[in-house]
């Protein structure tokens, strides 16, 4: 039962011929292993079953589960946010003051990162002028010769003028040139926890020409006007109450509002575009991103200083310095889409 | 013609010896399949040709086309943008008003995301004071007892003072504490379509110490001073006319300017650093990133409120509230470089 | 010594039976190559040694070095920055002026990208009014008929009113409506090189529930209050002197301060979470991201224009236009963590 005519040359004969001819022989010789055919049903069954397992692994695990055949693409995303709500501060300092979006959202653009003021220390009517330093070991003086004109200590707040002046009835400190502080007023926006934010997020996967947004097609406008995100009852609503976001991240809004912090709103767009994989929708999660109670912290929480500049009727520049504590919300979009 | 001396021990003999010795035998036995050498040129040719195809596939497809041998690295990019142009609003409301870059680009820094004002509703001279609510079912009142001091309805715009006051000759509404509105003025910056933006983009692939910018080395300064991006005639010019960007994205500038929107300027740096792959240059594309005409939208378009704060000569704070509609341009840089 | 009973059917016999029976035979036939067992210790040793090398390669290189068994995850990062320091400009123009954080950091939020003013051209007291154009070939005129009302040349700075007015004693130019410029003042903040910035960076790898921050647990608060980053002596300190950052990037602060630029602070979180890989800590590097001295540049350096708006006592709006040159610091976080 042989299919091929086989000639067994002996070694000597092969090497006797010309080199080229001999090489060609080697190149065109086809070696195949001799095989035994074992006609046992038991052995054959075990053998084919093993083959089946290998095929199932390749098709089932590598192709279907791991989708080894698929390319992936990272997300290109755009986010706009719009905060709503107003607050009313009634601390004795700032009398009754009303705060709306243009007052407490910084910057106002509604980008993927927005900041909501919750706690404010205002220093109004600052002018550039000369005033005594706060008393510290290096600023206390007894005569002008203790102060050096033009000297600026990084730990102080201004440039010394060279004079030693009265800070209080009992203390003298060096005079400095700076934005002088007359008084501080303090306000807390406790109502900020009830502000809501609408997050609009569109994602694009350029390689797959795939475009999707977080407001799903089945949601209608009247629902959007009154809904509020809740993981169980309203998981698709893009309007979030700030207090709810913070508590989902395991924090308490009012205690976070005092010192400020950074809170991440994570939108996970990990999607599978295979037809059997169901629809592609965003999954929201919330997480505090700064460190709450570290043992080793400088400047815990989140705050920054900014100023509003005014001119007095006689043309002098004054400013109101605001040290604002608050919560920065960072909308972070991630995920990998697998194409159809 | 055997090269090795082979001894066929019978099974019994092998197991008779000490276990260790027997094990060692198994470990050092070398099994090799018996092979047939078929000396047929036809068969040999088919065999070698098949081998050649496999080698060509590995070298040609896996190595050259897919570059399976290459590592890839994601891009680290920096973008600066600079808008130029001015506009002139001559609606009856705002008399003749001139707008330059410092007026209409927000924020001014020229980051990877910049916003150009196109449509403005200005509410000047707001002061914190008491004024009647707009008439709604919940704000209309007939006597003071209909209004609750300190009550703030999220759908209203302020905190009730507890008084019921005249809104018009025929209607009474609750008085609220808020930034009171005297009048609105409206302006449209139609000339914004002719603004230009210079985009400077540098990319770095830290793993490959590769650095490139979107202003190609062969471009000279005099060309840069007068050029304008055009996919066909000037594909390398980094100066873009806003109207052109918007129309490349398939939109009309003037209709997008009314409600605002978000437009992506996509810079694709997918590069191949193999020497035969030619130079590495950025490919620009433009795409509207927000949803234009959804059936289910809240707050369609793109706008935000911001305020400028002033002080009156007697020290009272007033503000000008601006509701700005416009186009946010997001420069999105992506791409994977394959190293040399 | 045969383990299986083998029947060698001849071809004719097999094809004589029914097709199905014959097929089943083929399906359940088990083919195994005939092997030679060569009992030579030398050959066996070479053979097993080669096998050992293959196993060592797979375990040692693929699994341990390349960690082919590991999944990787990209970093989600949050950055807050806080600049400290003050400067004093004593150019004759702006008299003595003091600058603190609220004056020179733009935007004030302390995001991953912050800008420090180093060189300022201030144009105070601009009002919207009519003034002669700067003399250029297209703006010089001899009579009103040379100027067209409503015409705006993109290269000019305003909209023509149609009048030809005196620019100087010898020249007449068209009058335009614009923010008129009275004078410029110039200031340089040389002390900016001694400002320090505290960078707080938290990273999260959502797939691995791994969270880490750049302030390492072993650092205590008193160290943080006085330390300053230095690659050799203080590599873990998160407080950076601006001059040091710029010089690590191979640039000179004072020369970069004149025209401005963009400087990247790269934080590399490439980590290996295998237990033997040691702790995971950030590696800082610094790099200038814009092009320093290109042959072909438009608008070299980094600057932008912004305005502060004021109202005069009689309600007219004025603005102070500031053209600010400075250094934008972009904190760029990258890296891939490999899980435990």
Automatic annotation (TrEMBL), chains A, B, C:
It is a multi-pass membrane protein. Gene3D superfamilies: atp-gated p2x4 ion channel, atp-gated p2x4 ion channel domain. It catalyses: Ca(2+)(in) = Ca(2+)(out). Its main location: membrane. This is Purinergic receptor P2X, ligand-gated ion channel, 4b. Glycans are attached at residue 194. It is found in: Cell membrane. Disulfide bonds join 131-180, 141-164, 147-174, 227-237, 271-280. GO terms for biological process: calcium ion transmembrane transport; response to ATP. It holds the Pfam family P2X_receptor. ATP binds at residues 82-84, 196, 303-305, 323. GO terms for molecular function: ATP binding; extracellularly ATP-gated monoatomic cation channel activity; purinergic nucleotide receptor activity. Keywords: ATP-binding, Cell membrane, Disulfide bond, Glycoprotein, Ion channel, Ion transport, Ligand-gated ion channel, Membrane, Nucleotide-binding, Transmembrane, Transmembrane helix, Transport. PROSITE patterns: P2X_RECEPTOR. It comes from the Eukaryota. The chain crosses the membrane at residues 42-62. Belongs to the P2X receptor family. The lineage of its organism: Eukaryota, Metazoa, Chordata, Craniata, Vertebrata. One of its GO terms (cellular component) is postsynapse.
């Amino acid at each position: 039962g042989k299919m091929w005519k086989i000639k067994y040359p002996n070694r000597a004969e092969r090497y006797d011929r010309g080199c080229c001819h001999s090489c060609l022989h080697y190149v065109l010789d086809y070696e195949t292993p001799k095989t035994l055919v074992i006609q046992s049903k038991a052995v054959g069954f075990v053998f084919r079953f093993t083959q089946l397992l290998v095929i199932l692994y390749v098709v089932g695990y590598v192709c279907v589960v791991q989708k080894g055949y698929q390319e992936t693409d990272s997300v290109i995303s755009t986010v706009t946010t719009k905060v709503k709500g107003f607050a009313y501060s009634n601390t004795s300092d700032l009398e009754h003051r009303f705060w709306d979006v243009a007052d407490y959202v910084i910057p106002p653009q509604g980008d993927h990162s927005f900041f909501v003021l919750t706690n404010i220390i205002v220093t109004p009517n600052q002018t550039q002028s000369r005033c005594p330093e706060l008393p510290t070991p290096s600023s206390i003086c007894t005569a002008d010769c203790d102060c050096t004109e033009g000297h600026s200590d990084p730990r102080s707040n201004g440039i010394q003028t060279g004079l030693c002046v009265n800070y209080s009835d009992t203390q003298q400190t060096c005079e400095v040139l700076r934005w002088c502080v007359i008084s501080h007023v303090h306000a807390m926006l406790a109502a900020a926890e009830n502000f809501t934010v609408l997050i609009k997020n569109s994602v694009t996967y350029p390689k797959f020409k795939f475009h999707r947004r977080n407001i799903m097609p089945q949601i209608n406008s009247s629902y959007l006007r009154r809904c509020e995100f809740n993981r169980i009852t309203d998981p698709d609503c893009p309007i979030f109450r700030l207090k709810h976001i913070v508590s989902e991240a395991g924090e308490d809004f009012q205690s976070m509002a005092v010192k400020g912090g950074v809170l991440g709103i994570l939108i996970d767009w990990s999607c599978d575009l295979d037809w059997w994989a169901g629809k592609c929708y965003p999954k929201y999660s919330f997480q505090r991103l700064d460190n709450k109670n570290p043992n080793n912290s400088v400047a815990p929480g989140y705050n920054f200083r900014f100023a509003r500049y005014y001119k007095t009727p006689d043309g002098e520049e004054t400013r109101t310095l605001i040290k604002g504590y608050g919560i920065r919300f960072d909308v972070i979009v991630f995920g990998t889409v697998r194409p159809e």
